[in-house]
Amino acid sequence: MKVTMKIDIRKFIEANQLRTLKSILEDQDAATIIDMIDELPVEEKLIVFRLLPKELAAQVFSELDPTDQTKLLSLFKEERVRDILNYMDPDDRTDLFDELPANVVKKLLEYLSPEERKRAIELLNYPPNSAGRLMTPEFVDLKEHLTVEEALEHVRKTGKDKETVYVLFVIDKTRKLKGTVELKDLIFADPGIKISEIMDPDPLYVHTTDDQEEVARFMSDHDLIAVPVVDSEQRLVGVITIDDIVDIIEEEATEDIQKMANMGVSYESYFHTKTTRFFKNRVFWLIALLIFESFSGVIITKYQDFLRTFAVLAAFIPTMIATGGNAATQTSALIIRAMATGEIELRDWWRVLLKELWVSVLLGASLAVVMMVRAHFTSPVLDVTLGVSCALLVMVVFSGVTGALLPFFARLLKIDPAFMAGPVVATIMDVMGVAIYFYVVSMFIK
Amino acid sequence: MKVTMKIDIRKFIEANQLRTLKSILEDQDAATIIDMIDELPVEEKLIVFRLLPKELAAQVFSELDPTDQTKLLSLFKEERVRDILNYMDPDDRTDLFDELPANVVKKLLEYLSPEERKRAIELLNYPPNSAGRLMTPEFVDLKEHLTVEEALEHVRKTGKDKETVYVLFVIDKTRKLKGTVELKDLIFADPGIKISEIMDPDPLYVHTTDDQEEVARFMSDHDLIAVPVVDSEQRLVGVITIDDIVDIIEEEATEDIQKMANMGVSYESYFHTKTTRFFKNRVFWLIALLIFESFSGVIITKYQDFLRTFAVLAAFIPTMIATGGNAATQTSALIIRAMATGEIELRDWWRVLLKELWVSVLLGASLAVVMMVRAHFTSPVLDVTLGVSCALLVMVVFSGVTGALLPFFARLLKIDPAFMAGPVVATIMDVMGVAIYFYVVSMFIK
Questions:
Q1: Within a 10 A sphere around the Cβ of B157, how many other Cβ atoms?
Q2: Hey, are the CB atoms on B293 and A322 less than 8 Å from each other?
Q3: CATH label of the domain that carries residue A14
Q4: Do B18 and B47 contact (CB within 8 A), yes or no?
């Protein structure tokens, strides 16, 4: 991999060699600059922004963390705010506005040129996480009757500051989407031929209200580098490009992993998230799980006398419930991910259940054998050994089934299945596990 | 979203209307056909393949699951195997060969044309998961001295069956990479100008041996739609396009989630993975965790007499260890993901530890209060209430620290940090939790 130059910006600032720094920065791309300034305090970021040309400044600004963006906006001079906001891509701007309080957005909108303001307000009106929020209204449109040569001329004239010119969109007088043409098709085609003859008259598209995750899956399945976005009347209103989709896919995976660890989702990067925010993200789940877990205590208290007589049985409680939790976690994680990538649908519950039941029986039998050996060392009484192993077998089968069904159950209730993982599953299995354990074991040991 | 036509292929096959089916299929793209045939038995897939034109057949075949690919290859007539293999993109072909036994690959290589065979063997020589395996050797190369007009003519002549023409690569006589030009730059530039004047003379590139995950991150950070791949002597040998990267990012997230649930990784889709495979993927971890978990039993056995006297204390064991496991799971999942996306590096361990310590103290204090109320209901003895709450506070702080450090520890040992999640963390916390619980509680209750 090409190692991008790592410059210690601080040294230049301390030595006051700002002119040299400026000429170095101007040669970098936005991603490299982000890399260089990411760990600087916001005051030094401010200095760097002063040195950047307007367009590059807007690009770098777009890639910053929302907390940094907000701080910088309050430190910038009005002129700089105006430049950056107007030069930002409309989709990145919507992203920023989403993070800010409504009164700040209102003020910032005033800095935009009338045309950009109109666009910004339109984009903000689409529902959160929809294709409308993600798209940019900057695209090149063509008319069917143009020749390839005229179309290329049109691309040359209007395409320079557009997000993409590799996919061009053919619309009619009412702006309805009629087809798409790839730029390469224009290059390969005879210059005199009509656009209507080479366009794809039945192009793939998405609606403004479609969820961004579905759009990401759609583009990835069809290997699209750009997809047109239409409104409810099939009028072309924007385009979503593949680079935004790559970010969505990463974000959604991060979101799923955070949900699977049962915590609130944080869209900011680790070091930019405040401690109190992390606290808030986690404390609700931990308390809820602790309270639910109390049921296991209620069950154990019920068996207190039994336990006083056979105190050795307490030694198996952690292993019993932990193994159940582990088996259920494996199953649910597998199914949650397959649901997220679109492979498993709600209607597949029966096929999944059968498969997991079978796997669980195999796992339960293997683990019961291991447990028998282990229990023999703790207590060589046959009743205990048999009771504990048998309880484990029941437990693992039960865990597999529960781990398989919980994500479906969540989906049925319109809850994100990702929550039915890790801690939630482990806690449910703890409570069920204690019940199963004492019930099965008390049948063997009188 | 555009609803792609869902045709019941079976009906056409049963009614023997193969000619109609053929004309329908010819109009679809590969992704739509995959959608339609995905759940058909392999014999019916075979019929569909007979109806598809060569190139489309190769595309559809590339998108199938490895198990289906292997089965179909054994059912196809020799002629069909020959066509499909020769028409497949070289990178997809490498992917397929990776899945097959060496002797099968050897036989299949004979079906390739001499030129394709040479390419296939070259690609197979790169290490698994490297940029070399992922790239395609099909790209358009230009020479510096060409004019824009000549370059466009060259693209027209040689670009038709290339994976991308949107990024063009400038090389010298020794095939060393000199620069890149985007197709749009050719369109916008004056036809008479030299390529050397408009190319990016310092382009971003990757090496054949770079890991695919790093390449994915690199392309996504720099918003590249294609990246050149060079060998150790900076000679251009291939190109990686963004559509392959989208797949890699999804695959890596799936892999991480499976590892975080502590199971073997399966690259096949859920329904195509055999039950025995799932069993093998999970059983090792479950047994290992069960054995490790036994230590908790050993500790409890040590406190057997104490427990006989204060049997009520058994009621808190599950809550205690579960809360520790939950808190540690949250922390480790957060850090594992931030490591995977490149935000947290090994050297950040100290900053992470401080932050997590602080969050854990806040969480521990809040949970101790909740626990005090709960313990009061189970046993209104002050010593028990205080002892249990205090043990929980120590437990949660300890969990936060452990959850934060385990991923760093794994990385230090060159183990994928993703394994330090869910079940592993929960099991470690179980054993530590039992020890902490009895130690702290026995200080309060004599």
A1: 10
A2: yes
A3: 1.25.60.10
A4: yes
Contact A333 B422 (CB under 8 A): yes
Total number of domains in chain A: 3
- Say yes or no to pLDDT of B254 above 90: no
Could you tell me if A81 and A111 are in contact, meaning their C-beta atoms sit under 8 angstroms apart? yes
- Which residue, among B429, B422, B426, B420, has the nearest Cα to B394 in the 3D structure? B429
Average per-residue pLDDT in chain B? 86
> What's the pLDDT tens digit per position in A345-358?
888 889 999 999 99
The distance of B276 to chain A (nearest Cα, Å) reads: 7
Full domain range(s) for residue A94? 9-125
Measure CB to CB from residue A337 to each of B254, B351, B426 and give the nearest one: B254
Residues B214 and B326 reside in one and the same domain: no
Q: Is A225's CB within 8 Å of B242's CB?
A: yes
The number of beta carbons lying within 10 Å of the beta carbon of residue A168 is: 28
Nearest CB among B165, B258, B330 relative to A184 is that of B165
Q: Are residues A89 and A222 in the same domain?
A: no
**What proportion of chain B, given as a percentage, has pLDDT over 70?**
98
Mark yes or no for CB contact B253/A249 under 8 Å: yes
- Give the integer Cα–Cα distance in Å for A179 and B203: 34
**∠ CA B387-B393-B395 to the nearest 5 degrees?**
100
CA distance linking residue A306 with residue A302, whole number of Å: 9
Q: 0.80 exceeded by the pTM? A: no
Which helix (H) or strand (E) element contains residue B228?
strand B226-230
Nearest by CB to A249, which of B31, B205, B246?
B246
- The 10s digit of each residue's pLDDT in A284-333 is 888 888 888 888 888 888 888 888 778 778 888 888 888 888 888 888 88
Q: A136 to chain B, minimum CA–CA distance in Å?
A: 16
* Burial tier of B101 (Cβ tally within 10 Å: 0-12, 13-18, 19+): exposed
In tens, the pLDDT along B193-205 reads: 999 999 999 899 9
Choose from B148, B180, B205, B359 for mutation: most chain A CBs within 10 A. Answer: B359
Residue given tokens 């072309």 in the structure block: A236
A238 shares its domain with A295: no
Cα angle at B295 between B376 and B423, to 5 degrees? 80
Question: In terms of CA atoms, which chain B residue is nearest residue A293?
Answer: B319
Distance, in Å, from the CA atom of B399 to the CA atom of B325, rounded to the nearest integer, reads 7
